[in-house]
Design goal:
The protein contains four helices and no strands. With 143 residues, it is mainly α. The chain has one domain.
């Protein structure tokens, strides 16, 4: 009974991690598209510190996209290693090889979580910087 609950919640966690990763990648790409469209606006003139906030924000959003993509690849490798471990257990492979696979799976899990948190943090700070820059640039129209 407890094992069934654990498996169910582990599945939910796996689905939610994939979902949030995909949503954050989508938001980051949408922000990038919006920012690129702003560059063509004739009223879009960056001066002094606006350039710093704008450039830094855009670089952070790009970093968020890369963190998200690498996290997705890490998850795929983790799933692949998990399947290989299950297959090896069925075939009766040596215990030392199974331990190596477990360590590799744990490493991929840690990498995935690190990348997911990095994706969230860089997207948040990138969005904050871009918001500051855009508000600063268009302050006469906004306020």
């Amino acid at each position: 009974m407890i094992n069934d609950r654990f498996v169910r919640w582990q599945t939910i966690l796996r689905v939610q991690v994939s979902f949030i990763n995909n949503v954050l990648i989508t938001i980051s790409i949408a922000i990038t598209g919006f920012i690129i469209s702003l560059i063509g606006d004739p009223e879009f003139n960056l001066i002094c510190c606006q350039k710093i906030f704008f450039t830094f924000g855009l670089l952070l959003v790009f970093a968020s996209i890369w963190f998200g993509l690498i996290a997705a690849i890490s998850r795929l490798k983790d799933f692949k290693t998990t399947l290989k471990k299950i297959k090896s257990e069925k075939e009766g492979i040596a215990l030392s090889e199974l331990e190596e696979m477990k360590e590799l799976m744990a490493r991929y899990g840690k990498i995935t979580w690190f990348l997911l948190y990095s994706q969230i943090i860089t997207l948040c700070f990138g969005t904050i910087n871009l918001t500051i820059a855009i508000c600063w640039i268009y302050h006469e129209k906004l306020f």
